[in-house]
Amino acid sequence: MINKSVVFLARKYLSGRKTRGIGKAHYLCLIGITLGVLSLLCVTSVMNGFRFDIRNRITGTFAEIRISAKGGETIKGYSAICNQLQDMKFSASPVIRNELLLKYDSVVLPTLCFGIEPNRHKNVSSLLQKPDTGSKEIIQGLLVGNISPEEFSASGIALGAGLASQLGVYLGDEIQVLSPMFNVPTAFGMIPRIRFLKVQAIFAAGMPEYDQNFSFMGIDNAVFFASYSPGEADYIEVKPFSQMRKNQPLKTLKKAFPDFQIEDWSSFDPNLYSAIRFEKFLMFVIMLFMFIIASFNLTGNLLKTISQKKRELGLLKALGLTDKDLQSLFLLQALFLCSAGIILGLTLGSLLLLIQKYTGIVKLGLGGGNSIILPVKFAFTDYLLITVVAYLITILSVLLPLKRLNKINAVELIKRAV
């Protein structure tokens, strides 16, 4: 148990002789710890927000889960699998992926075209539906036009906003869709597969690279360009009817379909997802080094206090306080400053982040003249990690001053005083 006199002395050393609360000499230490904690919280919360925002954009464009055949094979008889998923409380939509060329007048552009069934696709993705115009987030959904299942499946195509702009097309325009492979034999040699489709809708995916490259067509037209058989698809996009615990849908589907490859949204764009995770780690480490530098101020402050109060400390030793008591005295000072800095840092950081979350003061520019609100997402694990790291660095920063206490010779210091 800590000696009460040690607690009393720790309070006196913190407050100084003529002041209440924290003495002026300790303000820089407190400010450094507060700013360090605030920076760590803001960085981790913003990076969490980016990750959550990217997740919403990817799952809004595609779906939360993808089922595909192992070994790069196609899925045959997807209707039976979709019906089975329906019974398991999952929405499902087959997809055929083609790399095609779009031609309008003299402009020819490549596109990554997804063949879908509109009636099923709307249950797994919101991309080809009217967006929520009241949302503060960037619009994701149809900008103009509407998807009529019958017309779209027969001769319709939906283009990303960037792709439509580069082609110079609008609703109702007819474009030529070509396969880059020359695999149709004729009397004049091999020619590519060609169809004329009408632009039925233009969408925004919320990510510039998607808007500039993606398009959607009916699955029957996709079967034609891919040379597939009816009932054949590249993969099936899946979304649970209701919210489930993290990783629970994956576990359920892997158990039900052991012969298929099950992937979640993070594998759809792995480079982007890995970059977000690495950036969060890197920013946390950078802010952590800044916090460590700030902790040097605490080390120097304690060393200065020990040097100035050597005679007092020697007298305390002579009166019966042990080295352990003196170490507890300065450790209590450090822990008090650290605790106050953590509380202030977390409080101020949370306040700033809440202001950003509900007002959207800070915005970031996005390609195409768009902008997004700097995203924020709180996580209890971040608060816990920052608190533990702050205390750990504080304890490590006082090890050197505590070692200096062992060198104090009480008898010699009293003789010098006399």
From TrEMBL:
Has UniProt tagged this entry with the keyword Iron?
A: no
- Gene Ontology annotations of biological process type: lipoprotein localization to outer membrane
Report any Pfam family annotated for this entry.
FtsX
The MacB-like periplasmic core domain is annotated at 28-226
Q: Which residues form a coiled coil?
A: none
Specify the domain of life of the species encoding this protein. Bacteria
Give TM segment ranges. Answer: 27-47, 281-303, 329-355, 383-402
- Domain ABC3 transporter permease C-terminal span(s) in chain numbering: 285-409
Keyword terms, alphabetized: Cell membrane, Membrane, Transmembrane, Transmembrane helix
Chief subcellular location: membrane
Q: Where in the cell is it found?
A: Cell membrane
User: What membrane topology does the UniProt entry give?
Assistant: Multi-pass membrane protein
Any Gene Ontology CC annotation: plasma membrane protein complex
Which family is this protein grouped under?
Answer: Belongs to the ABC-4 integral membrane protein family. LolC/E subfamily.
Q: What is the protein's name according to its record?
A: ABC3 transporter permease protein domain-containing protein
